[in-house]
Design a protein that fits this description.
Elements: H1 3-31, E1 35-36, E2 47-52, H2 60-69, E3 73-74, H3 80-90, E4 104-110, E5 113-116, E6 147-151, E7 156-160, E8 170-175, H4 186-191, H5 220-225
């Protein structure tokens, strides 16, 4: 590999890292307003936050990536009580229609069936917008919606077609991981300082693996290169 090729590759990696860091910084800044559905109130202990970022760019996939960069995921709901809590606590309307209260959720249409990204059982009955008012019903008549968004000021759900129906830069993010199995959602312990998160990725440092290089080798690559061909 010549010097020019190496420089171009380094620039490409640096650019990708810069974009990821910018997205993560946006998520972290918004996550300060996260709210918990406490177990003491009949909840699941999970944390929820509306994240707004230009990085979403009207894309469900970008919203999903942004949530995961901060250790969370697009919100999923298996009970009416959970949805009711999130709806009442986190609905934040925009200043102008037609995107008032619209944000991405963690549902998508897969082989004709609506599913959550984390495998959670789908909420039934589903609080669909019926295309006429906000009283619930069948999905709205977009017809080609493949992803899920809130609608009606955040009170109902709607399928979102590729045409989008207007710019969308918000997503509802949920934190539910408990990587150390102590019965407490990690994100809350990061917020209160119980668990350290030095790289601010939403995952406790104690739950992230560290790759140790044998002391006789200067780099990971050197250690790899020293392994005999065919070794297991």
């Amino acid at each position: 590999m010549n010097l020019v090729t190496r420089c171009l590759r380094a620039l490409s990696v640096a650019r990708a890292a810069a974009v990821a860091c910018a997205m993560l910084a946006s998520a972290v800044a918004n996550a300060e307003g996260a709210v918990q559905w406490p177990v003491s109130a009949g909840g699941n202990g999970h944390w929820y936050q509306v994240v707004r970022s230009a990085a979403i760019g009207n894309s469900w996939s970008a919203a999903r990536a942004l949530a995961e960069l901060d250790g969370g995921h697009l919100a999923t709901f298996s009970s009416a009580a959970e949805w009711s809590f999130a709806r009442d606590q986190l609905a934040v309307p925009d200043s102008a229609p037609p995107v008032t209260g619209i944000m991405f959720l963690g549902g998508s249409l897969q082989a004709g069936v609506w599913r959550w990204i984390d495998g959670t059982a789908w909420l039934s009955p589903t609080p669909w917008w019926n295309g006429i008012d906000c009283g619930g019903g069948v999905p709205s008549p977009q017809g080609d919606g493949q992803t899920l968004q809130t609608f009606c000021g955040g009170t109902a759900w709607d399928d979102r077609g590729p045409e989008g129906g207007g710019a969308l830069d918000k997503a509802l993010v949920e934190w539910s991981a408990d990587c150390n199995n102590d019965g407490i959602v990690d994100y809350g312990q990061i917020l209160d300082g119980t668990l350290a998160d030095a790289n601010t990725n939403g995952v406790p440092d104690t739950c992230e693996s560290t790759l140790l290089v044998p002391s006789q080798y200067p780099t990971i690559q050197a250690a790899i290169d020293a392994v005999p061909a065919g070794a297991q």
